[in-house]
C-alpha cells in the first residue's frame, strides 16, 4: 500500500518509503517543515531533491525507456517493409495512400495518446506502462490473424497505436524525472532504442516474409515473442522518481506559452515531411529495380544511421542548445528529402538511407528535449510531453497519406519529395523563430 509523506500528505510510490522518510527527517532538521507549516511554498528541488543526472537507477530507467521504444516506435519504423508486402499480398487492391493510412494513423496515435498516457503516468506511475505492455503483446498476436483492410486499421493502426502511446510518453516522463542537465542526451538514448528496433525488426520481417516459407502470420507472431522479454525488462525498471500526483489532461497555461507553441509547430511541420522516406523508401526502391528483400533492408540501414543521429545530437544539444539541435535537424532533413527522387541506383539508395536516417533521427530526440525546457514544474512533465507530442504529431497523421496521394496523382516521386522537403525546412525556420524571440537571440545557445 505504501506510506504517506508526512510533509506533503501525498501517497508515496511503493519502493520510495525509505527515501521519503529520510527526506522528511532532513526537512525537519534544515527548517523546511516549519516553512511548509507556515504556508511557505517549496520548490520541487527543495521538496524532492534535484534530479541525480546519473547513477545506476537513473541509467536503468533510461535503458527501460529505450526498451519501450525498441518495441513500439521500432516496430512502427518497420511499416515500410509491411507496406511493400501488403501491396502485393494482403491488400493488392488498395492504393499506396490507402495502405499509408494504416502506418500514419498508428504513428499519430502513439504520440497523440500521450495526451492521456502522460497524465496517467503522473497519477498512477508504472502501472500504466505494465498494463499497456500486456495488451500490446496480445494485440501483436491478433495482428498475425488479420486479413482485411479494416482488420489492419483497427488492430495495427488504432489499438496498437493507442497502446504504444501509453508506453512511450510515460517513458519520456520517467527519464525526465532522473535527468536535468543531461536530459537531451538521456532522451536521445531512449529514442535510439527505436532505431535499434528499426534495424532488427525490418531485417527480421523482410527475411521471414520474402526469404522463408513462414508466411505473414508466423512472421508477426515471432516478432511478438521476440519483444516479450524486452518489454518485461522495461516494466521492471521503468519507475518514476517523484511520487504519483493528480494532474490535468490539459494545461491551458501551456497553450498561452509562445515558446511551447513554437516548439510544437516546428515538430508538427517536421513530422509531415520526415516520415515520408520511412514509409515509401522500400516501395520506391522496388520501382528502381532493387530486389524486395534488399528494399526492406534499406529501412534497417536508415534506422541504424538514426541511432547515431539520436544520440550524438542529443549529447551536443545539452552543450549547444536543444532548440539549436531541433532547428539544425529539421533544416538538414528537409534538404535531404528534396533529393529523394535523385537516388536511382541501389548504391545511391543505401547512401541516401544513411544520410536521411542520421539527420531525421535528431528531430524526435531534440523535439522531446525542447518540449521539456518549456515545462516549469517537472511534476507536470508527463502532461507537457503528452500535450506537445499529441499536437505536434498531427503531422504524422497527414504527411504519409498526402505523399501517397502525390505519388498516385503524378505517377512518380519528384513532387512527393518536394512537398516533404519543403514542410520539413519550414519546421526548421519555425524553430529559428523561437530563437529569434528568446533573450539569447538567434545566435545564442537555446
Summarize the structure.
The protein has 446 residues and is mainly alpha-helical. It is 76% helix and 0% strand. Pfam families: MFS_1.
Structure in words:
It is a multi-pass membrane protein. This is Major facilitator superfamily (MFS) profile domain-containing protein. Keywords: Membrane, Transmembrane, Transmembrane helix. It comes from Apiospora hydei. The chain is an all-alpha fold and 446 residues long. The chain has 2 domains: 1-49, no CATH class; 50-437, Growth Hormone, Chain: A (Up-down Bundle). 76% of the residues lie in helices and 0% in strands. The chain contains 21 helices and no strands. The chain has helices spanning 17-30, 32-37, 44-48, 56-71, 73-76, 79-88, 96-112, 114-124, 127-143, 149-178, 183-210, 215-237, 252-255, 258-274, 276-287, 292-320, 322-338, 346-372, 381-392, 394-410, 414-437. Helix 7 (96-112) runs antiparallel to helix 20. The longest helix has 30 residues, at 149-178. It is globular.
Amino acid at each position: 500500500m505504501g506510506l504517506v509523506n508526512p510533509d506533503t500528505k501525498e501517497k508515496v510510490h511503493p519502493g520510495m518509503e525509505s527515501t521519503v522518510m529520510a527526506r522528511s527527517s532532513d526537512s525537519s532538521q534544515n527548517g523546511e517543515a516549519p516553512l511548509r507549516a507556515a504556508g511557505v511554498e517549496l520548490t520541487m528541488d527543495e521538496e524532492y531533491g534535484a534530479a541525480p543526472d546519473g547513477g545506476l537507477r537513473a541509467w536503468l530507467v533510461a535503458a527501460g525507456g529505450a526498451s519501450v521504444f525498441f518495441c513500439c516506435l521500432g516496430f512502427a519504423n518497420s511499416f515500410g517493409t509491411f507496406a511493400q508486402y501488403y501491396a502485393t499480398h494482403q491488400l493488392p487492391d488498395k492504393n499506396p495512400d490507402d495502405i499509408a493510412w494504416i502506418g500514419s494513423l498508428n504513428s499519430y496515435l502513439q504520440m497523440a495518446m500521450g495526451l492521456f498516457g502522460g497524465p496517467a503516468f503522473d497519477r498512477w506511475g508504472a502501472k500504466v506502462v505494465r498494463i499497456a505492455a500486456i495488451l500490446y503483446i496480445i494485440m501483436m498476436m491478433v495482428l498475425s490473424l488479420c486479413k482485411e483492410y479494416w482488420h489492419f486499421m483497427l488492430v495495427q493502426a488504432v489499438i496498437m497505436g493507442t497502446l504504444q502511446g501509453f508506453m512511450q510518453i510515460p517513458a519520456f516522463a520517467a527519464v525526465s524525472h532522473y535527468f536535468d542537465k543531461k536530459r537531451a542526451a538521456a532522451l536521445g538514448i531512449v529514442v535510439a532504442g527505436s532505431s535499434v528496433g528499426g534495424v532488427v525488426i525490418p531485417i527480421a520481417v523482410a527475411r521471414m516474409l520474402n526469404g522463408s516459407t513462414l508466411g505473414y502470420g508466423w512472421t508477426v507472431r515471432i516478432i511478438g515473442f521476440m519483444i516479450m522479454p524486452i518489454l518485461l525488462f522495461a516494466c521492471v525498471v521503468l519507475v518514476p522518481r517523484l511520487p504519483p500526483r493528480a494532474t490535468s489532461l490539459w494545461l491551458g497555461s501551456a497553450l498561452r506559452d509562445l515558446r511551447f507553441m513554437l516548439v510544437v509547430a516546428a515538430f508538427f511541420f517536421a513530422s509531415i515531411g520526415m516520415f515520408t522516406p520511412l514509409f515509401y523508401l522500400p516501395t520506391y526502391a522496388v520501382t528502381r529495380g532493387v530486389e524486395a528483400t534488399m528494399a526492406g533492408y534499406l529501412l534497417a540501414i536508415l534506422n541504424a544511421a538514426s541511432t547515431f543521429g539520436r544520440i550524438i545530437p542529443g549529447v551536443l544539444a545539452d552543450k549547444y542548445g536543444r532548440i539549436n539541435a531541433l532547428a539544425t535537424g529539421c533544416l538538414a532533413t528537409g534538404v535531404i528529402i528534396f533529393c529523394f527522387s535523385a537516388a536511382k541506383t541501389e548504391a545511391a539508395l543505401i547512401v541516401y538511407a544513411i544520410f536521411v536516417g542520421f539527420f531525421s533521427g535528431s528531430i524526435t530526440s531534440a523535439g522531446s528535449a525542447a518540449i521539456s525546457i518549456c515545462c516549469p514544474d517537472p511534476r507536470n512533465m508527463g502532461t507537457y510531453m503528452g500535450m506537445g507530442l499529441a499536437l505536434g504529431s498531427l503531422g504524422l497523421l497527414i504527411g504519409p497519406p498526402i505523399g501517397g496521394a502525390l505519388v498516385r496523382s503524378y505517377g512518380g516521386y519528384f513532387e512527393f519529395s518536394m512537398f516533404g522537403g519543403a514542410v520539413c525546412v519550414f519546421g526548421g525556420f519555425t524553430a529559428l523563430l523561437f530563437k529569434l524571440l528568446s533573450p539569447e537571440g538567434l545566435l545564442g545557445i537555446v
